[in-house]
Amino acid sequence: MWIKSNSFVFGSLSLLIAMQCSPGWSADVGTSATPSPNAPQLYTSGSLSAFRNDNTLQSPTDRRLDNYLNVDLTVGVMGMLPSDWGYKIYARGFLDRFDRVRDADDSVSLVGGSLSHNLADWKTSLSYENRRYYVGVFGPLDFTTNDVKIAASRNVPVGNLLTTPHVSLLYRNASNADVNQVLLDLSLDLELPINKTWSIVSAPQFRQYWYLSGANQGRRDSKYTSSLGVKYNITDQVGLSTAARYEIRTSNFSGKDYHSFEFGPELDFSF
Which domains does the chain have, with CATH numbers? Predict the structure, then answer.
């Protein structure tokens, strides 16, 4: 079931990995973040984390404590177009696998692409993703979505503090009318270096959801997330961090409010 339902996305991943390993497509690790004009490059990024969460079902009353593993992998091609436009074409898969509360397991696979351009020191982008949501860890297909998103971000040094504000607006059209939505996402990445390898990190975030149809028509959710941790840069491409994260959701629909706390280590990489 898992292999059949993911043949397209993970076939794309396999093809991209094979291309990356071949001599003609080998990307320079040190320059993968800034592709040369007219020179497509393959890239890989992702994370592996293990967290302990006190509300795995995101419920206002049925709070269950459990540990879970999160795996996130992206493989794609990126390059530059004329007039300093950047592009990416990629495949991605991610999952949450819980130790005991298996009803909380979830997973997503997707293919997508984006165009980006710098405007007044802001990196702006327009992206499209076709997502497939599964029951459990790549079990039966639950629903699919077509997501269109516009986004902007920039780096703003404040003394020794590195700040990166992000803003995005997403429109989702799904096979399940209950999840059709518009999502506004505001976040701020903060990093305060202690020395060459250690830094203190935080990522406050606010998300506003407007549901458009189905059983959730008229629903409005607000989600607030704050985190604080310490990051160790193993190399320029690999980092290990530990973080504590608190999240709260409020809604105009009864039974949709919740709050949760989690903590744990996370390994990030980008090549």
Answer: 2-270 (2.40.160.40)
